[in-house]
Design a protein that fits this description.
- The chain is mainly beta.
- It has one domain (40-203): E3 ubiquitin-protein ligase SopA (Pectate Lyase C-like, 3 Solenoid), CATH 2.160.20.
- Helices cover 5% and strands 32% of the residues.
- The protein contains two helices and nine strands, in the order βαββββββββα.
- The chain has helices at 16-19, 197-203, and strands spanning 12-13, 26-28, 30-38, 46-58, 66-73, 86-93, 106-113, 126-133, 146-153.
- Strands 1, 2, 3, 4, 5, 6, 7, 8 and 9 form a nine-stranded parallel beta sheet that branches.
Length: 210
C-alpha cells in the first residue's frame, strides 16, 4: 500500500529563492505557487512537507535530491536532472516530466498521476510502492531496475526499455504499447492481455498465425 504525503494543512507561501539558502539547501513546510526557476545546480537539495504548483524548472540539476512528503502539481520539470534521488511519500500530479533523469535513485511511496514522462530515465533505480497512473511513458528507460510493488495503470509504454529488469509480478494488461524492449527470461510472472500477446510472441522469435 502506497503511503500518501504527510503535509500540514497550513503552509507558508514563499518564492522558491526565498525559502532556501545555497549553503543550506532545505525547503520545509512551504507552499510555492507559480514561478520559474532557471539554471540552478544544487547538490543534495532537501524538500520536506511542501507543495509546489505551477512551477517551471528550466535547465535544473538537482542531483541527489531528497524528497519527503512533497506534492508537485502541474509543474514542468522537463529534462531536469534528479539523478541519485531519495524519495518517500511523493506525488507528481499532471506534471510535465519529459526527459527527466531519475537514474540511480531510490524511489519509495510515489504516485505519478496524469504525467508526461516520455523519454524519462530511471536506469539502475530501485522502486518500492510506486504507481504510474494514466501516464505517458513512451520510450522511458527502466534499464536494470528493481521493482517491488510497482503498478502501471492505463499508461502508454510504447518503446519503453526494460532490459535487465525483471517484470515478475508486474501487470501491464491495462497499458498500451506496440513494442517493448525486454528479455524473454525476465518475463516470467508478468501479466498481459490477449491483445498484447503478439508483441511478446515476437520477442520469443515466434510468429502468430490467424
Amino acid at each position: 500500500m502506497i503511503e500518501q504525503p504527510r503535509i500540514p494543512v497550513h503552509l507558508y507561501e514563499a518564492d522558491f529563492y526565498q525559502i532556501y539558502d545555497g549553503e543550506d539547501p532545505i525547503l520545509n513546510g512551504a507552499k510555492v505557487t507559480s514561478g520559474s526557476i532557471r539554471n540552478e545546480q544544487v547538490d543534495k537539495l532537501e524538500l520536506t512537507k511542501c507543495r509546489l504548483k505551477n512551477v517551471v524548472f528550466t535547465d535544473i540539476v538537482f542531483s541527489r535530491i531528497e524528497l519527503t512528503d512533497v506534492v508537485f502539481e502541474n509543474c514542468d520539470l522537463s529534462n531536469a536532472n534528479l539523478a541519485e534521488a531519495n524519495t518517500n511519500r511523493v506525488v507528481f500530479k499532471e506534471c510535465k516530466l519529459v526527459g527527466v533523469d531519475f537514474s540511480e535513485s531510490y524511489l519509495n511511496n510515489m504516485v505519478f498521476q496524469d504525467c508526461n514522462l516520455t523519454l524519462s530515465s530511471f536506469g539502475y533505480s530501485k522502486f518500492k510502492n510506486i504507481s504510474f497512473q494514466n501516464c505517458l511513458l513512451d520510450h522511458a528507460d527502466f534499464y536494470e531496475c528493481v521493482f517491488k510493488a510497482l503498478e502501471f495503470s492505463q499508461d502508454e509504454l510504447n518503446g519503453a526499455n526494460f532490459t535487465q529488469t525483471s517484470l515478475k509480478g508486474i501487470d501491464l494488461s491495462s497499458c498500451e504499447f506496440d513494442q517493448l524492449t525486454v528479455q524473454p527470461d525476465k518475463l516470467a510472472g508478468c501479466t498481459i492481455n490477449e491483445y498484447q500477446m503478439a508483441a511478446f510472441i515476437g520477442l520469443l522469435g515466434m510468429k502468430l498465425k490467424n
